[in-house]
Write a structure and sequence with these properties.
A: mainly alpha, B: globular
């Protein structure tokens, strides 16, 4: 009886754990093994596969673009969605706005790809609008501006999601501190910077990690509008994985998978520290 | 101060309109009729000079593009059913395995529970590309490549719904369980009569998020399904060419429609599901 008590609840997890092991862990361990062996034989290759990655031009380009994309997009998204969350909460039509900003989440990438193609085409709608203000248009998808298209696409899809995350954080803050501050004569901006921001710090990390995760999904639109080999400026890690998969370059892929998962594990460790107490 | 508030409202309104525009564009295009579309978008297809334009209100609304998709395109229905099959399979799996696992992780007290939870979180945060190769290898090993079952099994054991539901189950006060235990309720009864009803919002949230995700999945079918007749709608990218523009719009709207319905009916749960990943959820 005592033994049963000790393992209380474990049985509930077992079916899922079995599935997760079969479909994710065991094959992942195999990928780790592959990352240190040679493609042709079974001989141990050490870190050679990894060293080759860093000599591979496509990898370096994709890596640089992906990092650049994250460095531009994530802070931008965090800022835009936070400002929007604060502003929308004060609007009379708050519910309607939430609805509008969340809607892109529901839109399948194939549906939006059609719109992006027509908007960002060389003779497309964005250029028509720019033409109105007297500026020359360009072929957005086949020039370095393609990077910008990806940024817009990412912001458009994820702003609502992040806005809801921020709103949840704002709602958690005890409202009475604002009242007190306002009575003391603090203006809106001071309330925001001095009371709200410090209190939101604790969810900042969570929101960042989720934004990071979602940033990988920008590949969907990028791939659908520009294919496997888009303009260099939007050639991301995800394109590279996809192309290596097509070419069955399994040793490179396994090394890159392991590397990418290590990078993400670092972020997860940060999350562990941010969530540590709460997950009890 | 008052002045500032008005400005904010106007700004937000314009910004929201900008966000809504692509959806509006899609819907308007789908009821516009081929001639009007070509008149507007001609420049994209090399017809006429200048730039394309778009009207939000079609001059001659028509449902012909939809009729064409629904009556003349049997492939559309094949793909639609593929999508339904894959999505339903994944959700059913998440409902069974995910709910159970979340319950065990939230309310169990076995050694290694905390670590196991972190394993699920780590898995949840891995992008598709990290797992792409291992997913492929295991499906190949199990003979599930180029089959719906491969996608279904993998989706069913996704870690994301486990985490979302965990957050909701975790908020159920332990006193309730203790009381039920004292009354002699077994472990399954507690799950059925306390866990399921009180964690309902969590289950719905996970299902809404899971449905939107599976309905629009791109990478998995693209990578693991070779046979075209097995493809789901989410990778049906209609070619936009002259004479078929209206068709492309109608297809895009029809793919969106089921997700939109879920979004409209489940927005509350969608929001709660999103919130659950950043702040702790309360009892129900």
């Amino acid at each position: 009886m005592k033994r049963v008590k000790k393992w209380r609840g474990a049985l509930w997890v077992l079916p899922s754990l079995a599935g997760v092991s079969v479909f994710y862990f065991v094959p992942y361990v195999d990928v780790v093994r592959r990352s240190v062996t040679q493609n042709s034989g079974e001989s141990f290759a050490g870190i050679r596969n990894f060293r080759e990655l860093f000599q591979n031009e496509a990898f370096l380009l994709a890596g640089a673009n992906t990092l650049k994309f994250m460095a531009v997009c994530i802070p931008l998204l965090l800022a835009v969605s936070l400002l929007l969350a604060v502003a929308v909460l004060r609007c009379r039509l708050a519910e309607l706005y939430k609805w509008v900003f969340l809607l892109p989440m529901a839109l399948p990438a194939v549906s939006v790809a059609l719109v992006w193609k027509l908007v960002f085409h060389g003779h497309g709608i964005l250029n028509a609008l720019l033409g109105l203000s007297g500026r020359a248009g360009k072929d957005w998808l086949h020039s370095p501006a393609a990077f910008g298209v990806m940024v817009v696409s990412y912001l458009w899809r994820n702003t609502g999601y992040n806005m809801v995350l921020w709103m949840a954080g704002i709602r958690q803050i005890d409202g009475s501190i604002y009242e007190a501050a306002r009575i003391d004569g603090a203006n809106e901006i001071r309330v925001f910077t001095h009371m709200m921001l410090p209190n939101l710090k604790q969810i900042l990390y969570t929101v960042s990690v989720l934004s990071l995760l979602n940033s990988f999904k920008v590949f969907r639109e990028a791939y659908l509008v520009a294919g496997s080999y888009p303009d260099d400026s939007m050639y991301m890690m995800q394109h590279l994985f996809n192309n290596w998969f097509g070419a069955l370059a399994l040793d490179k892929m396994s090394a890159a998978s392991v590397l990418l998962s290590l990078v993400i594990l670092v972020f997860i460790f940060g999350l562990y520290r941010a969530w540590g107490k709460e997950m009890g | 101060m008052r002045h500032c508030r008005k400005c904010t409202e106007v700004l937000i309104f314009l910004f929201a309109l900008l966000f809504f525009l692509p959806v509006l564009f899609l819907i308007a295009g789908s009821v516009m009729g081929e001639d009007e579309l070509l008149g507007c978008l001609g420049p994209v297809f090399g017809q006429g000079g200048g730039y394309a334009r778009m009207a939000v209100f079609p001059s001659f609304p028509t449902i012909r593009p939809y009729v064409k998709v629904l009556l003349d395109t049997p492939e559309f229905f094949v793909m639609f059913w593929n999508s339904v099959k894959i999505t339903a399979g994944i959700l059913a799996g998440q409902m069974i395995f995910g709910t159970m696992a979340a319950w065990g992780l939230a309310k169990g007290s076995f050694p290694g529970r905390k670590q196991l939870l972190w394993v699920y979180i780590a898995l949840m945060l891995m992008p598709f590309q990290v797992l792409m190769l291992s997913d492929y290898l295991v499906l190949k090993e199990l003979g599930l490549l180029d089959s719906h079952w491969g996608l279904i099994w993998q989706g069913a054991f996704s870690a994301f719904p486990v985490f979302i539901m965990y957050r909701f189950f975790d908020g159920i006060p332990p006193e309730m369980m203790e009381a039920a235990e004292l009354d002699g309720a077994g472990s399954f009864q507690i799950f059925r009569h306390i866990g399921l009803p009180l964690g309902r919002a969590g289950i719905f949230s996970a299902m809404v998020l899971g449905l939107l995700e599976s309905w629009s999945m791109i990478e998995q079918p693209m990578t693991f399904l070779k046979t075209k007749s097995l493809w789901p709608l989410s990778i049906l990218l209609p070619e936009i060419q002259e004479g078929k523009i209206g068709y492309a719009f109608a297809v895009s709207v029809l793919i969106f429609l089921p997700a939109l319905l879920v979004f409209l009916t489940g927005q509350k749960y969608l929001e709660q599901g999103i919130e659950a990943s950043s702040v702790k959820k309360g009892g129900n």
